[in-house]
Structures are given as C-alpha cells and as structure tokens.
C-alpha cells in the first residue's frame, strides 16, 4: 500500500512534468496567442508543483525530482505528428489521472488545515486552467476541427474495411476488389463531407458553442481524412493480394491504424484508452465478419464468381 509521502511525491512529479511540457510547447508555438496561453498554463502548473512541494515539506517528506526527458520527447513528438490540439487534449487526459490520484489521497490520508488551504488554492488554479484549455482549442482552424480529422479517419477505416473484405470474399480478382473499395471510399468521402458541412452550418445558424467552426473546413477535414482512413483497408488489394490473404492483411493493417486512431479519440473524449480501443476493434471486426459471410454467401449460394 502506497504511503502519503509516495502519493504526494507522485502528484508533485506529475505537475512538474505538466509545467515543463507547457513551457516547451509554448517555446515551439509560432502563434503569439497560442504561445501566450500555453505559457499561462505553464505558470499555473508550476504553481501547483510548488504547492505540492510545500505539502511535502510540511510533513517532513523529501522532494524527489524525476527525469522527464524521455516523456517530454514523446509528448513533443506527438505535437509534431498530431498537432498542438491533440497534445493539449493529451495533457488534459493526464490531468484527469493526476486529479484521480489527488482524490484518492484526500480520501485515504488526513490533511491538516494548512494543507487543505493550500489544496484549495490549487483547485482554484485548476478551474482557471480548464478555462484556458477550452480557449486554446478555439484559436485556429486546425485546433477547432481536430475532431473532424480524427472521427473522419475512424469512420473511413471501419466502413471501408467492412465493405472491402465483403467484396474480397465474393470476388477473386484483387483489382476488382480495389475498384469496388475505391468507389465506396469516394462515395463515403462525399457523403461524410456533405454531412459535416450541413451539420456545422446548422450549428452556426442556431448559435451553439461550436459556432466558431467553419462549415467548409469541417467538410474538408472530414472528407480528406475519411478517404485517408479508407486507403488502409484497400491497400493490400492495390498490391495484388487477394482472397483470404487480402482479407487478413486488410484486417491486420486496419486494426493497427484503428488502435492508434481510437487511442487519440479516447484522449480527445476523456475516455479510457483501453476501453475505446477494444470497443472500436470489436465493432470493426464484427462488421468485417458479417460482410465476409455475406460475401461468401454471394459467391457460393448465389453463384457470383468473378
């Protein structure tokens, strides 16, 4: 069982990591507005770390520094790969974990009046931090449309995998499967883009909280990334792999990419990564299994052989 000292040390190390990350993100950011907000978040997180250091000293505990170089490297790499918006949401996800640790410590251990007063100061800072994080996500189009990007790609992966493996079960020629898969991908791209445009335009008309989103950009991001997601399930057939091998490679490739995309969605939505990845893969494989059975039914029961 972890001691109070270990709990507070872990919390302090988490807050110190958050402050270092926001500082580095601010240094790397070109937009003046975004950089200023990131540095404000750095200041808040640094104050949280200082408060927890004081709590440790009040109880006579040691302040243990943790080497965050590798963690910061991977977080900054995520900024390069997925953009600032995802990195901010990832930091919010980490913050939720840190807050759960704090809640557990408050229930498990006794704190003096002085310690509780310090924690209340920390809670006020967290409320300001939440506001700044929301403001940050409205500062440029890519940040605002990050959900269109990720959910568009997720739909492209799942829907086109289901269609493609069904075609492969019915058709023997990889080129025909490729053509059929591309047609599904193109029609899905147009459908998703149109739906994103109309829904975002409706949001603007009724003045919802998402009114900052541009209908045109929403349609563009959703459509482009839907098609990008659709490329992975049809890739094996583009290289001439058909039949059962084409189906297996398509499922494996899509599952791998889907795990990454689902992890990103989990971070954006504040959900459990393991739960979201498991659900997405099971749904995708379930849809693929159903269409494979339909494909084989078309081949053998209906005598559709091409």
What does this structure look like?
The chain is mainly α and 306 residues long. The protein has 11 helices and no strands. The protein has helices spanning 4-28, 32-58, 69-82, 84-108, 113-136, 141-144, 146-170, 174-206, 215-238, 243-269, 273-300. Helix 1 (4-28) runs antiparallel to helix 4 and helix 7 packs parallel to helix 11 (273-300). The termini are far apart.
Give a quick set of tags describing it:
306 residues; mainly alpha; 11 helices; 0% strand
List the helices and strands and how they pair.
Blueprint: H1 4-28, H2 32-58, H3 69-82, H4 84-108, H5 113-136, H6 141-144, H7 146-170, H8 174-206, H9 215-238, H10 243-269, H11 273-300
How would you describe the shape? elongated
Structural class: mainly alpha
Number of helices: 11
Q: What's the N-to-C terminus distance?
A: 64 Å
pLDDT < 50 stretches: none
Rg result: 24 Å
Helix content: over 70%
Number of strands: 0
Mean pLDDT: 81
Concise synopsis of the structure shown:
With 306 residues, the protein is mainly α.
